[in-house]
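Minutes, project check-in

Agenda point 3 was the complex the collaborators sent over. CS summarized: two entities, 446 residues total, and the question is how they sit relative to each other. Sequences were read into the notes so everyone works from the same version.
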Amino acid sequence: MATAAKGVVLLDFWVSPFGQRCRIALAEKGVEYEYKEENLWDKSPLLLKANPVHKKIPVLIHEGNPICESLLIVQYIDEVWSNNPLLPSDPYERAQARFWADFVDKKVSECWTRLWKVKGEAQEEARKDMIEDLKLLEGELGDKQYFGGETFGFVDVAFVPLSAWFYTFETCGNFSVEKECPKLVAWAKRCMERESVSKSLHDPHKVYEYVCQLKKKLGVD
Amino acid sequence: MVSGGEVKLFGMWASPAVRRVEWALKLKGIKYEYVEEDISNKSGALVQYNPINKQVPVLLHNGKPIVESLVILEYIDEVWKHHPILPKDPYERAMARFWAAYSEDKCRDAVRRVFFAEGGERAKAIECLEETLRALDGELEGKEFFGGENIGFSDLVLGWMAFWLGVSEEVASFEVLDPKKFPWFTSWIDNFLQVPAIKENLPPRDKTVAFFHGYRRLHLAAPNC
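CS then shared the predicted structure for the full assembly.
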């Protein structure tokens, strides 16, 4: 049942995995909101006012209050709308979930930033790091259905948007996620069976096309 | 002193990330055992409890390890609910976490760049650092602490700047803490360092300056390390 929440606006960019985290969280909670697509090369006055420090998407505006940084937005959503909790109730398990969500940002996203921008030895190192980090995540998943155990949770929300980028990682980095981390690929497929995920993520080939265009625009390659 | 099972903290005396955990434990009056780690020769226990990053701080609560200082702070606040560090309101919590993330994502990097910058790079690095101080100064306007009337989560996370930024200025010979440019931030430093749990829990200044002199020399001699 959709909750008609007063004044929920999401400033976002279609392919952003960080924005998608927020979309997935809102969908999991059944929160109705207004989606506003930003042009990152011509940011709106609303975005600049809502996030003056970083000037970045995503930004969630709820009852006039802006919340920035995707993982903070997801935690905010989880605290305001308490149905279908994303974080577990046990403090130790919550700490583990926060650690792994942070790991996705500090390690995987960071590796990706190196992988597509550099060549040669530096790229080889980024590829090795990426595979190592994905394997660590796969180890954490183990044989569980989701990172959250039997329920789709915080780490799943944090990581699943990057699964639409696996094809891009593989093509830029010249490796196979399926070969290195088959459990992660199976997990991503399971997540895609959830409407909140399938409606938020884009086709991996579309993501790759976007990155190719971005590379041309920035003169990388 | 509050008990709540066995609490152990693996740390390193000069580390700001470790201190912020100690400040939280002291504020809540939680009894704990402190274990000093030799970072150049990490113990089997540290590697066992933090196999991924192999870093301090590590909090061990009833034998279970929690790592990453910000994660540890939230854990402490959730287990020991008295003297709360994070506010109750979800929006205020999001703001507290925002400034904590700002400390880790922007401020640390900005200070590090000035600390290691040489020659022509220095001016640009100082400009970046001053931009972060301007943002913090703006956020503090009209407030004694980031948490309002009392110190909170953002104060504990940003607290390293109240001590270690001054140390960095001395070691790397630069000056950014100007009360005319950043009146609220420089006042906050004074306010923060007067809080008893903080004041009584800082590393010795001379020893810290000497340590970071060595750290800087080592890094500048071998920049790829």
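Noted in discussion: The two ends of chain A are 48 Å apart (CA to CA).
Follow-up: revisit at the next meeting once the mutant set is ready.
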